[in-house]
Each structure stands twice: as C-alpha cells, then as structure tokens.
Amino acid sequence: MPHCVIEHSSSISADALIAQVFSGALLSELFEADGGDIKVRALPFTNHQSGTDKIDFVHVTLRILSGRNIEQKSMLSQFVLEQLKKLKLANCSLTIEVVDIERASYAKVIV
C-alpha cells in the first residue's frame, strides 16, 4: 500500500513522474522499506483546461489505508511534491491529495 495514481498532461513523461512519485512515497518511511508495497500508475490527458490559460498539470492521488494522522499525511504529500519539483517542469501545476481507504472494506489477493 499505497496506490498512487498520477493524472497528468500528456506532454509530460509518465516514466519520470512514476519514478519521482515512487521515490517520494518511499522516502516518507510510511511504507515497507523495500518499496514492495508502493504501487504507482499514470493516466495521461491530451485534452484538458486549467482556468483560462492552457498550462500543464500533474495531480497525484495517494490512496492509503486509514489510520494515519494528519501530520503523516501532510508529510507524505510534501515528500512526493518535493520529488516532483526536481523534474523542473515549467508552467505546470503540481497538486497532491491523500485519500483514506477504509480498512474494513478493503480487500486484496494476489492470484
């Protein structure tokens, strides 16, 4: 856990975004030390609008099991944001949100 979903402008490399989001989640030390439980995927968008100007965007949703406090969630957001800033994107909006997955209703199996 977590499930990291990146929505982004198609003009930005998904591979670079995936690597940076994975790194930020790992650096937070909220998940397994080997990173084996961190899942990252990217969804590029060719059609989008951000206000009245056409600028690129990256929005990351970090879905984590419930039970973490607000400080841990904020720290996770900041670690991921700092890694994304290393890409030195220009004219681009970077946003991060952390969303709880209710433990009682979450199911997982590897088949």
Automatic annotation (TrEMBL):
UniProt key word Acetylation: no
Top-level taxon: Bacteria
UniProt entry tagged with the keyword S-adenosyl-L-methionine: no
Species the sequence originates in: Thalassotalea fonticola
Protein name, UniProt field: 5-carboxymethyl-2-hydroxymuconate isomerase
Molecular function via GO: isomerase activity
Pfam families, sorted: CHMI (PF02962)
Keyword tags: Isomerase
InterPro entries named among the record's database cross-references: 5-COMe_2-OHmuconate_Isoase (IPR004220), Tautomerase/MIF_sf (IPR014347)
